[in-house]
Automatic annotation (TrEMBL):
Mg(2+) binds at residues 95, 112. Keywords: GTP-binding, Lipoprotein, Magnesium, Metal-binding, Myristate, Nucleotide-binding. GTP binds at residues 88-95, 134, 190-193. GO terms for molecular function: GTP binding; GTPase activity; metal ion binding. It comes from the Eukaryota. Residues 1-33 are annotated as: Disordered. Signal peptide: none annotated. Belongs to the small GTPase superfamily. Arf family. It comes from Anisodus acutangulus. This is ADP-ribosylation factor-like protein 2. InterPro entries: Arl2, ARL2/3, P-loop_NTPase, Small_GTP-bd, Small_GTPase_ARF/SAR.
């Protein structure tokens, strides 16, 4: 089961590919949650409630769901976990950014055909980073990773002027998604080391970021996954912003 994967089991980073035997699924937040949500006892209890008592089944299911949500919140608070989803067009530099921030070799990178999960400790937080492939044919799978996302990272290849329209379209499409409405949004204007790359301000204009919903917490940061410039500035902002919402009682 993919939800049992943790980065420590895969020193080179797990790369999970989609195929008929391994279709995209709804990943859970952590291994602990996987055991909560995949509990056979819970599943059979839900089935029994639904079959034996249809009129009140909905109410009882609601109560159980609320209970589960509170367990999830407690686990999250205890571990100071955050779920970060990295998306963007293919070749924008998502995988390179994750490797670089984790201090890994970035010299040999291939396109991500499914997703990678990386668990890293960042200051006092544990970040579960989901790096999902951005090729056009697999973008429809992004939606399988929206659930419980705390921070969204949209990566732009600032030197790929030809595909900026495509990039704007995909970003605004993503932001319509209800399940991502509470997520803080970091936009990385990546590949600033390449001559001719647009600046973060120019990227913000082309992507029409000012048109974003007022309630959205967002920031654009110029970076280079190649040199590492800007990566910490971006992640520092994201982690602080998410922490101020999730862990505000600490
Ligand atoms: N010059 C330069 N090249 C970069 C930078 N970031 C990534 N690259 C290169 O861009 C190419 C694509 O990088 P990836 O990290 O595989 O891109 P990706 O967004 O993960 O692509 P998919 O997995 O296909 O969605 C690789 O050849 C990287 O070496 C950067 O900041 N500067
Ligand atoms: Mg990749």
């Amino acid at each position: 089961m993919v939800s049992n994967l943790i980065a420590d089991d895969f020193p080179n980073g797990p790369q999970v590919k989609f195929n008929d035997e391994n279709p995209p699924h709804h990943p859970t937040h952590s291994p602990q949650l996987a055991s909560v949500t995949h509990s056979p006892i819970l599943a059979s209890s839900l089935a029994i409630i639904a079959v034996t008592n249809p009129p009140s089944a909905t109410r009882k299911l609601g109560v159980i769901t609320m209970g589960l949500l509170s367990i999830i919140r407690k686990i999250k608070r205890k571990e100071k976990e955050m779920r970060i989803l990295m998306v963007g067009l293919d070749n924008s530099g998502k995988t390179t950014i994750v490797l670089k921030i984790n201090g890994e070799d970035t010299s040999v990178i291939s396109p991500t055909l499914g997703f990678n999960i990386k668990t890293i400790t960042y200051h006092k937080y544990t970040l579960n980073i989901w790096d999902v492939g951005g090729q056009k044919t697999i973008r429809s799978y992004w939606r399988n990773y929206f659930e419980q996302t705390d921070g969204l990272v949209w990566v732009v290849d600032s030197s790929d002027l030809r595909r900026l329209d495509d990039c704007r379209y995909e970003l605004h499409n993503l932001l319509k998604e209800e399940r991502l409405s509470g997520a803080s949004l970091l936009i990385f204007a990546n590949k600033q080391d390449i001559q001719g790359a647009l600046s973060p301000d120019e990227i913000a204009k082309v992507l029409n970021l000012e048109a974003m919903d007022n309630s959205r917490h967002w920031r654009i940061v110029g970076c280079s996954a190649y040199t590492g410039d800007g990566l910490l500035e971006g992640f520092d902002w994201l982690v602080q912003d998410v922490a101020s919402r999730i862990y505000m009682l600490d």
